Each structure stands twice: as structure tokens, then as C-alpha cells.
Amino acid sequence: MLDDVPTRVCSRCKVEKPLTVEFFRRDSAKNQWFKYRCKQCQADELTPEQKAQKNIRSKSWASHLNKSSESKQKHQAVKNAWAKLQHGTLVKPNQCSRCGSNHRVEGHHHKGYDKEHQYDVVWLCRKCHALIHSLARDASRNVALTGNREP
Fold first, then answer.
1. Which sign, positive or negative, has the C-alpha torsion 114, 120, 71, 128?
2. What tens digit of pLDDT does each residue of 81-123 get?
């Protein structure tokens, strides 16, 4: 090994490897710089269930990254609507437009987050807002499963 790079012997495979993030994971929980087992040995110890869970998490993260442009568009629409509220050009009523409740009224961009619809907001209570989003999720799942839309 290189003389100037510290090394560590893996406690499982007993191979001396450079003490770098390439070979060992950081261990902040025990206030140590690196774990005692090398990355390869840790990966070999995963159960099939753990490997499946790790795969699901990585796919979920990839899905999140693909939606990032949509998330940016949503964030911009909410931010712009909030600015109009603060400026006074967009008015927030005290009641839910669906059920009439006056408890925690919030905006719902019912036409989407495109620039031309950023200020098309329906004011709903938290309960109605959550209901509308759950109905939309259920409808999109139905379309994904069956391939057709129900009226």
C-alpha cells in the first residue's frame, strides 16, 4: 500500500485496505472516522430483504429526481401566489369554497401549475384539500392500472 495513506484491516475479510471513503464507510454514530468492515463486506452481509428495500429506495429517489422540474414549477406557482396574497392582488376568503368551513383555508391550484394558471386558485379547508388530492391520486392509479379513464 502507499506509505502516506493510512490503512485498516477489515474485521471480516482481514484484508488491509486504504482508509478512504472508496473502501470504508464513515461511521459518525460512534464518533469514529470509518467503520471497521469494508464496503464490500458490508454489502455481502445484507439480507435479500435489505437488498430489496435498498433497491426500492434507490428507485424512489430516481423517481423523485425525474419529478424535480414539476416540483420546481409547483414551488414557483405557490411562491408567486403567496406574493400576490402579500401584495393584496389575490384575495384569500375566510371560508372553504367546497364545504363552507372556516378552519385553516388553503389554496388549491385546480388547473395545474403552468404559468398561465399560477393564480387560478380555489380556496379549500385542509380536509377538503386533502380529499381532492386523494381522489386525484386514486384516479391516476386507476388509469395506470387499467389503461383507461372512467368518467
1. negative
2. 888 888 888 888 989 999 998 888 998 988 888 888 888 899 9
